[in-house]
Design a protein that fits this description.
By secondary structure, the chain is an all-alpha fold. Helix content is 57%, strand content 0%. The chain has one domain. It has two helices and no strands.
Length: 68
Amino acid sequence: MSFLLKTLERLVDRFIRDDTLIKYPLNENKHAYMGGKSTDTALHVLEEKIEKALWYKEHPLGVFLYIE
């Protein structure tokens, strides 16, 4: 059963990458399914935005949503 589910997962992943993302590309700010981007790069972008806001004496505000 595990082999079957892993195979199905790879098929769905390949369909998303090779078909859907070609027709409907993601926004450049998205980090999922993007080569060279990861959680680390998403956190780096967030850190840069916070530092920029503090530099210009603005008040950075973040909203985080965790869905399980």
